[in-house]
Protein backbone atom coordinates (compact mmCIF):
# COMPACT_ATOMS: atom_id res chain seq x y z
CA UNK A 1 0.00 0.00 0.00
CA UNK A 2 1.94 3.06 -1.23
CA UNK A 3 -0.76 5.58 -2.10
CA UNK A 4 0.21 7.69 0.94
CA UNK A 5 3.86 8.72 0.69
CA UNK A 6 4.13 10.71 3.92
CA UNK A 7 6.83 8.97 6.02
CA UNK A 8 5.56 6.99 8.96
CA UNK A 9 6.74 8.09 12.42
CA UNK A 10 9.84 6.39 13.74
CA UNK A 11 7.88 4.34 16.26
CA UNK A 12 6.10 2.56 13.36
CA UNK A 13 9.34 1.95 11.45
CA UNK A 14 11.16 -0.14 14.02
CA UNK A 15 12.39 -3.36 12.44
CA UNK A 16 10.18 -5.72 14.42
CA UNK A 17 7.07 -3.67 13.62
CA UNK A 18 7.85 -3.65 9.88
CA UNK A 19 8.56 -7.40 9.91
CA UNK A 20 5.36 -8.02 11.82
CA UNK A 21 3.39 -6.00 9.28
CA UNK A 22 4.80 -8.09 6.43
CA UNK A 23 3.95 -11.35 8.23
CA UNK A 24 0.39 -10.20 8.99
CA UNK A 25 -0.11 -9.24 5.35
CA UNK A 26 1.01 -12.70 4.24
CA UNK A 27 -1.26 -14.40 6.78
CA UNK A 28 -4.25 -12.43 5.51
CA UNK A 29 -3.36 -13.27 1.90
CA UNK A 30 -3.42 -16.96 2.84
CA UNK A 31 -6.38 -17.09 5.23
CA UNK A 32 -8.58 -14.21 4.09
CA UNK A 33 -8.20 -13.69 0.33
CA UNK A 34 -10.97 -11.83 -1.53
CA UNK A 35 -12.86 -15.02 -2.35
CA UNK A 36 -12.92 -15.97 1.34
CA UNK A 37 -14.23 -12.53 2.26
CA UNK A 38 -17.04 -12.98 -0.27
CA UNK A 39 -17.92 -16.19 1.57
CA UNK A 40 -18.05 -14.30 4.86
CA UNK A 41 -20.41 -11.78 3.31
CA UNK A 42 -22.65 -14.53 1.90
CA UNK A 43 -22.80 -16.24 5.32
CA UNK A 44 -22.92 -13.02 7.39
CA UNK A 45 -20.06 -14.36 9.51
CA UNK A 46 -16.45 -15.47 9.40
CA UNK A 47 -15.84 -19.21 9.95
CA UNK A 48 -15.34 -20.10 13.61
CA UNK A 49 -12.11 -21.94 12.76
CA UNK A 50 -10.57 -18.68 11.56
CA UNK A 51 -10.42 -17.56 15.19
CA UNK A 52 -8.45 -20.67 16.13
CA UNK A 53 -6.13 -20.16 13.17
CA UNK A 54 -5.55 -16.55 14.23
CA UNK A 55 -4.75 -17.77 17.74
CA UNK A 56 -2.26 -20.32 16.39
CA UNK A 57 -0.61 -17.56 14.34
CA UNK A 58 -0.21 -15.35 17.41
CA UNK A 59 -2.64 -12.69 16.18
CA UNK A 60 -4.94 -12.84 19.20
CA UNK A 61 -3.84 -11.07 22.36
CA UNK A 62 -1.22 -9.05 20.49
CA UNK A 63 -0.84 -6.39 23.15
CA UNK A 64 -1.64 -8.62 26.14
CA UNK A 65 1.29 -9.20 28.51
CA UNK A 66 3.07 -12.52 27.99
CA UNK A 67 2.52 -13.46 31.63
CA UNK A 68 -1.22 -13.29 30.92
CA UNK A 69 -0.99 -15.54 27.89
CA UNK A 70 -0.66 -12.79 25.29
CA UNK A 71 1.98 -11.92 22.74
CA UNK A 72 3.61 -9.17 24.82
CA UNK A 73 3.32 -6.50 22.13
CA UNK A 74 1.88 -3.01 22.38
CA UNK A 75 -0.70 -0.86 20.63
CA UNK A 76 1.50 -0.58 17.51
CA UNK A 77 0.92 -4.26 16.84
CA UNK A 78 -2.84 -3.72 17.01
CA UNK A 79 -2.46 -0.81 14.56
CA UNK A 80 -0.51 -3.02 12.15
CA UNK A 81 -3.24 -5.66 12.25
CA UNK A 82 -6.03 -3.12 11.74
CA UNK A 83 -4.22 -1.49 8.84
CA UNK A 84 -3.40 -4.74 7.09
CA UNK A 85 -6.99 -5.93 7.42
CA UNK A 86 -8.19 -2.64 5.94
CA UNK A 87 -5.66 -2.59 3.12
CA UNK A 88 -6.46 -6.20 2.20
CA UNK A 89 -10.24 -5.77 2.41
CA UNK A 90 -10.55 -8.30 5.26
CA UNK A 91 -11.75 -5.90 7.94
CA UNK A 92 -15.07 -7.72 8.41
CA UNK A 93 -13.12 -10.07 10.70
CA UNK A 94 -13.90 -8.77 14.21
CA UNK A 95 -10.47 -9.60 15.59
CA UNK A 96 -9.57 -6.03 16.53
CA UNK A 97 -12.66 -5.70 18.73
CA UNK A 98 -11.64 -8.95 20.44
CA UNK A 99 -8.00 -7.81 20.85
CA UNK A 100 -8.12 -4.07 21.38
CA UNK A 101 -11.51 -3.50 23.02
CA UNK A 102 -12.65 -6.64 24.88
CA UNK A 103 -9.37 -8.01 26.25
CA UNK A 104 -8.11 -4.65 27.64
CA UNK A 105 -11.04 -4.46 30.06
CA UNK A 106 -9.87 -7.71 31.60
CA UNK A 107 -6.13 -7.05 31.70
CA UNK A 108 -6.49 -3.45 32.89
CA UNK A 109 -9.19 -4.00 35.49
CA UNK A 110 -9.52 -7.73 36.11
CA UNK A 111 -8.40 -9.48 39.25
CA UNK A 112 -5.41 -11.81 38.99
CA UNK A 113 -7.79 -14.76 39.04
CA UNK A 114 -9.88 -13.26 36.21
CA UNK A 115 -6.80 -12.62 34.09
CA UNK A 116 -5.62 -16.21 34.51
CA UNK A 117 -9.09 -17.57 33.81
CA UNK A 118 -9.89 -15.64 30.64
CA UNK A 119 -6.88 -14.04 28.95
CA UNK A 120 -5.01 -17.19 27.82
CA UNK A 121 -8.26 -18.56 26.35
CA UNK A 122 -8.89 -15.28 24.51
CA UNK A 123 -5.33 -15.44 23.15
CA UNK A 124 -5.74 -19.02 21.89
CA UNK A 125 -9.11 -18.50 20.22
CA UNK A 126 -10.90 -20.87 22.60
CA UNK A 127 -12.89 -17.82 23.63
CA UNK A 128 -14.22 -15.23 21.18
CA UNK A 129 -14.97 -11.94 22.87
CA UNK A 130 -17.54 -9.22 22.47
CA UNK A 131 -18.83 -6.35 24.58
CA UNK A 132 -22.55 -5.82 25.00
CA UNK A 133 -23.22 -2.11 25.52
CA UNK A 134 -25.99 -1.03 23.15
CA UNK A 135 -29.62 -1.78 23.93
CA UNK A 136 -32.81 -1.25 21.93
CA UNK A 137 -33.43 1.90 23.97
CA UNK A 138 -29.85 2.96 24.79
CA UNK A 139 -27.15 3.63 22.22
CA UNK A 140 -24.65 6.42 22.76
CA UNK A 141 -26.31 7.19 26.12
CA UNK A 142 -24.67 4.50 28.24
CA UNK A 143 -26.29 5.88 31.37
CA UNK A 144 -29.61 4.74 29.92
CA UNK A 145 -28.71 1.03 30.10
CA UNK A 146 -31.56 -1.08 31.51
CA UNK A 147 -29.91 -4.51 31.69
CA UNK A 148 -29.47 -5.57 35.31
CA UNK A 149 -27.13 -7.90 37.19
CA UNK A 150 -28.72 -8.30 40.61
CA UNK A 151 -26.95 -10.02 43.49
CA UNK A 152 -28.44 -13.41 44.32
CA UNK A 153 -26.71 -15.68 46.82
CA UNK A 154 -23.08 -16.05 45.78
CA UNK A 155 -23.68 -14.78 42.27
CA UNK A 156 -25.72 -12.50 40.05
CA UNK A 157 -28.83 -12.87 37.92
CA UNK A 158 -28.58 -11.03 34.61
CA UNK A 159 -31.71 -9.81 32.82
CA UNK A 160 -32.02 -7.62 29.76
CA UNK A 161 -31.42 -7.40 26.04
CA UNK A 162 -28.66 -6.00 23.86
CA UNK A 163 -28.56 -5.22 20.15
CA UNK A 164 -26.06 -4.39 17.38
CA UNK A 165 -23.44 -6.52 19.15
CA UNK A 166 -20.38 -7.14 16.97
CA UNK A 167 -19.13 -10.77 17.12
CA UNK A 168 -22.43 -11.56 18.82
CA UNK A 169 -23.19 -14.82 16.98
CA UNK A 170 -19.82 -16.42 17.68
CA UNK A 171 -18.74 -14.86 20.97
CA UNK A 172 -18.67 -17.13 24.01
CA UNK A 173 -17.22 -14.51 26.36
CA UNK A 174 -19.41 -11.44 26.62
CA UNK A 175 -18.64 -8.38 28.72
CA UNK A 176 -22.10 -7.12 29.64
CA UNK A 177 -22.68 -3.52 30.67
CA UNK A 178 -25.30 -3.87 33.41
CA UNK A 179 -26.76 -2.10 36.41
CA UNK A 180 -25.83 -3.81 39.66
CA UNK A 181 -27.57 -0.97 41.51
CA UNK A 182 -30.29 0.43 39.24
CA UNK A 183 -31.11 3.23 41.68
CA UNK A 184 -27.61 4.74 41.50
CA UNK A 185 -27.45 5.74 37.82
CA UNK A 186 -23.94 5.67 36.34
CA UNK A 187 -22.47 4.82 39.76
CA UNK A 188 -24.53 1.63 39.77
CA UNK A 189 -23.06 0.35 36.48
CA UNK A 190 -20.77 -2.69 36.41
CA UNK A 191 -19.10 -4.82 33.77
CA UNK A 192 -19.90 -8.48 34.24
CA UNK A 193 -18.57 -11.37 32.16
CA UNK A 194 -20.99 -13.97 30.85
CA UNK A 195 -19.46 -17.16 29.48
CA UNK A 196 -22.22 -18.36 27.20
CA UNK A 197 -21.32 -22.05 26.81
CA UNK A 198 -24.00 -23.87 28.79
CA UNK A 199 -25.46 -20.68 30.23
CA UNK A 200 -29.17 -21.28 30.86
CA UNK A 201 -31.36 -18.33 29.93
CA UNK A 202 -28.91 -16.87 27.42
CA UNK A 203 -30.21 -16.59 23.86
CA UNK A 204 -28.83 -15.20 20.65
CA UNK A 205 -31.30 -13.38 18.48
CA UNK A 206 -31.02 -12.64 14.80
CA UNK A 207 -27.75 -12.23 12.99
CA UNK A 208 -28.70 -8.74 11.90
CA UNK A 209 -28.79 -7.93 8.19
CA UNK A 210 -26.78 -4.76 7.55
CA UNK A 211 -26.13 -2.53 4.54
CA UNK A 212 -22.38 -2.85 5.07
CA UNK A 213 -19.83 -4.92 7.03
CA UNK A 214 -22.03 -7.90 6.15
CA UNK A 215 -19.29 -10.46 6.80
CA UNK A 216 -19.10 -9.53 10.47
CA UNK A 217 -21.78 -11.12 12.63
CA UNK A 218 -23.84 -8.55 14.51
CA UNK A 219 -26.50 -9.77 16.88
CA UNK A 220 -29.29 -9.32 19.32
CA UNK A 221 -28.54 -10.92 22.68
CA UNK A 222 -31.05 -11.85 25.38
CA UNK A 223 -30.40 -12.53 29.05
CA UNK A 224 -33.30 -14.18 30.86
CA UNK A 225 -32.41 -14.91 34.50
CA UNK A 226 -28.87 -15.89 33.50
CA UNK A 227 -26.96 -17.09 36.56
CA UNK A 228 -23.43 -15.67 36.69
CA UNK A 229 -20.76 -16.42 39.34
CA UNK A 230 -20.12 -13.64 41.81
CA UNK A 231 -16.46 -13.38 40.82
CA UNK A 232 -17.36 -12.42 37.23
CA UNK A 233 -17.68 -8.69 38.00
CA UNK A 234 -14.61 -7.22 36.32
CA UNK A 235 -12.26 -6.06 39.04
CA UNK A 236 -14.33 -7.76 41.72
CA UNK A 237 -16.00 -4.52 42.83
CA UNK A 238 -19.45 -3.31 41.84
CA UNK A 239 -20.10 0.15 40.48
CA UNK A 240 -16.84 0.64 38.56
CA UNK A 241 -18.24 -0.07 35.09
CA UNK A 242 -18.92 3.47 33.95
CA UNK A 243 -15.43 4.63 34.95
CA UNK A 244 -13.88 1.63 33.20
CA UNK A 245 -15.87 2.37 30.03
CA UNK A 246 -14.87 6.04 30.02
CA UNK A 247 -11.21 5.15 30.44
CA UNK A 248 -11.20 2.64 27.57
CA UNK A 249 -13.42 4.44 25.05
CA UNK A 250 -10.56 6.68 23.77
CA UNK A 251 -8.73 3.57 22.50
CA UNK A 252 -11.92 2.27 20.89
CA UNK A 253 -12.39 5.60 19.11
CA UNK A 254 -8.77 5.66 17.98
CA UNK A 255 -9.24 2.12 16.62
CA UNK A 256 -12.12 3.38 14.49
CA UNK A 257 -9.98 6.22 13.14
CA UNK A 258 -7.10 3.84 12.31
CA UNK A 259 -9.50 1.53 10.49
CA UNK A 260 -11.13 4.45 8.67
CA UNK A 261 -7.86 5.69 7.19
CA UNK A 262 -6.79 2.19 6.13
CA UNK A 263 -10.10 1.47 4.37
CA UNK A 264 -10.05 4.83 2.58
CA UNK A 265 -6.45 4.23 1.49
CA UNK A 266 -7.57 0.97 -0.07
CA UNK A 267 -10.32 2.89 -1.82
CA UNK A 268 -7.78 5.28 -3.30
CA UNK A 269 -5.59 2.39 -4.46
CA UNK A 270 -8.55 0.65 -6.10
CA UNK A 271 -9.64 3.88 -7.78
CA UNK A 272 -6.19 4.60 -9.17
CA UNK A 273 -6.13 1.15 -10.76
CA UNK A 274 -9.57 1.70 -12.26
CA UNK A 275 -9.01 5.19 -13.73
CA UNK A 276 -5.76 4.09 -15.33
CA UNK A 277 -7.48 1.24 -17.17
CA UNK A 278 -10.93 2.67 -17.93
CA UNK A 279 -11.16 4.73 -21.12
CA UNK A 280 -13.67 7.36 -22.26
CA UNK A 281 -13.58 9.63 -25.29
CA UNK A 282 -10.39 7.96 -26.47
CA UNK A 283 -8.27 8.35 -23.33
CA UNK A 284 -8.00 6.97 -19.82
CA UNK A 285 -10.18 8.49 -17.10
CA UNK A 286 -6.96 9.45 -15.30
CA UNK A 287 -5.99 11.81 -18.13
CA UNK A 288 -8.99 14.08 -17.48
CA UNK A 289 -8.15 17.10 -15.36
CA UNK A 290 -11.23 16.65 -13.19
CA UNK A 291 -10.05 13.14 -12.27
CA UNK A 292 -6.60 14.43 -11.42
CA UNK A 293 -8.03 17.21 -9.25
CA UNK A 294 -10.36 14.84 -7.40
CA UNK A 295 -7.56 12.36 -6.73
CA UNK A 296 -5.27 15.16 -5.59
CA UNK A 297 -7.92 16.29 -3.12
CA UNK A 298 -8.45 12.76 -1.85
CA UNK A 299 -4.75 12.06 -1.41
CA UNK A 300 -4.30 15.31 0.47
CA UNK A 301 -7.20 14.62 2.83
CA UNK A 302 -6.01 11.08 3.51
CA UNK A 303 -2.45 12.25 4.11
CA UNK A 304 -3.68 14.78 6.68
CA UNK A 305 -5.85 12.08 8.26
CA UNK A 306 -2.92 9.63 8.45
CA UNK A 307 -0.64 12.24 10.03
CA UNK A 308 -3.27 13.12 12.64
CA UNK A 309 -3.95 9.47 13.44
CA UNK A 310 -0.22 8.74 13.72
CA UNK A 311 0.02 11.66 16.13
CA UNK A 312 -2.80 10.17 18.21
CA UNK A 313 -1.10 6.75 18.18
CA UNK A 314 2.07 8.37 19.49
CA UNK A 315 0.14 10.07 22.28
CA UNK A 316 -1.61 6.82 23.16
CA UNK A 317 1.67 4.89 23.36
CA UNK A 318 2.83 7.45 25.95
CA UNK A 319 -0.46 7.28 27.85
CA UNK A 320 -1.33 10.85 26.83
CA UNK A 321 -4.33 10.39 24.52
CA UNK A 322 -7.24 12.21 26.12
CA UNK A 323 -10.92 11.67 25.41
CA UNK A 324 -11.26 14.97 23.53
CA UNK A 325 -8.48 14.23 21.04
CA UNK A 326 -9.72 10.67 20.54
CA UNK A 327 -13.20 12.06 19.84
CA UNK A 328 -11.73 14.48 17.29
CA UNK A 329 -9.94 11.62 15.54
CA UNK A 330 -13.01 9.40 15.48
CA UNK A 331 -15.44 12.01 14.17
CA UNK A 332 -13.16 13.81 11.72
CA UNK A 333 -11.54 10.74 10.15
CA UNK A 334 -14.82 8.90 9.67
CA UNK A 335 -16.41 11.98 8.10
CA UNK A 336 -13.44 12.20 5.72
CA UNK A 337 -13.65 8.45 5.05
CA UNK A 338 -17.25 8.75 3.90
CA UNK A 339 -16.56 11.89 1.88
CA UNK A 340 -13.57 10.56 -0.07
CA UNK A 341 -15.08 7.13 -0.72
CA UNK A 342 -18.11 8.86 -2.19
CA UNK A 343 -15.81 10.80 -4.53
CA UNK A 344 -13.92 7.66 -5.50
CA UNK A 345 -17.10 5.72 -6.19
CA UNK A 346 -18.17 8.57 -8.49
CA UNK A 347 -14.96 8.16 -10.50
CA UNK A 348 -15.97 4.55 -11.16
CA UNK A 349 -19.20 5.72 -12.78
CA UNK A 350 -21.88 3.04 -12.99
CA UNK A 351 -19.39 0.32 -12.13
CA UNK A 352 -18.93 1.89 -8.70
CA UNK A 353 -22.53 0.97 -7.91
CA UNK A 354 -21.90 -2.70 -8.68
CA UNK A 355 -21.22 -4.97 -5.72
CA UNK A 356 -18.46 -6.87 -7.50
CA UNK A 357 -16.27 -3.76 -7.45
CA UNK A 358 -14.38 -3.26 -4.16
CA UNK A 359 -15.23 0.44 -4.05
CA UNK A 360 -18.94 -0.42 -3.60
CA UNK A 361 -18.16 -2.54 -0.54
CA UNK A 362 -15.87 0.13 0.89
CA UNK A 363 -18.59 2.74 0.40
CA UNK A 364 -21.18 0.62 2.22
CA UNK A 365 -18.82 -0.36 5.03
CA UNK A 366 -17.86 3.25 5.74
CA UNK A 367 -21.33 4.42 6.75
CA UNK A 368 -21.43 2.73 10.15
CA UNK A 369 -18.13 4.33 11.14
CA UNK A 370 -19.97 7.57 11.93
CA UNK A 371 -22.38 5.72 14.22
CA UNK A 372 -20.66 3.10 16.39
CA UNK A 373 -18.19 3.90 19.11
CA UNK A 374 -20.42 6.87 19.91
CA UNK A 375 -22.08 8.80 17.10
CA UNK A 376 -20.16 11.67 15.55
CA UNK A 377 -22.72 14.05 17.02
CA UNK A 378 -21.84 12.76 20.50
CA UNK A 379 -18.15 13.21 19.64
CA UNK A 380 -18.82 16.89 18.94
CA UNK A 381 -20.63 17.24 22.26
CA UNK A 382 -17.62 15.78 24.07
CA UNK A 383 -15.23 18.07 22.19
CA UNK A 384 -17.40 21.11 22.92
CA UNK A 385 -17.27 20.36 26.65
CA UNK A 386 -13.49 20.86 26.54
CA UNK A 387 -13.73 24.43 25.21
Outline the structure in words:
- By secondary structure, the protein is an alpha+beta fold.
- The chain has eleven helices and nine strands.
- It has helices spanning 15-31, 34-43, 48-56, 75-88, 95-109, 112-124, 241-277, 289-317, 323-347, 358-366, 376-385; strands at 129-132, 148-152, 155-166, 173-179, 189-195, 202-207, 218-229, 279-280, 283-284.
- Strands 2-3-7-6 form a four-stranded antiparallel β-sheet, with no helix packed on it. A three-stranded mixed β-sheet has the order 1-4-5, with helices on one face.
- Terminal Cα separation, in Å? 38 Å
- Major sheet characteristics: 4 strands, antiparallel
* Range of strand content: 5-15%
Helix coverage percent: 40-55%
Nearest-integer average pLDDT: 95
Computed CA radius of gyration, to the nearest angstrom: 21 Å
The tally of strands reads 9
Helix/strand/pairing class, anyone?
A: alpha+beta
Helix/strand order, N-terminal first: HHHHHHEEEEEEEHEEHHHH
Give a short summary of the structure.
This protein is an alpha+beta fold. It has helices at 15-31, 34-43, 48-56, 75-88, 95-109, 112-124, 241-277, 289-317, 323-347, 358-366, 376-385, and strands at residues 129-132, 148-152, 155-166, 173-179, 189-195, 202-207, 218-229, 279-280, 283-284.
